[in-house]
Amino acid sequence: MSLDSNKTEQRRPDWAALAIAAVLAAIAAVILIDVSRLKGASGYSQVGPATVPDWIAFALIGLAIWTVVEAFRGDFPTREKQETGPVIWIVAGLAAQMLLLRFAGFSIATGVLFGLTAAGFGKRKLWVTIPVGIVICLFIWLIFAGLLQLALPAGPLERLFL
Question: Quick check: keyword Nucleotide-binding in the entry (predicted)?
Answer without folding.
Answer: no
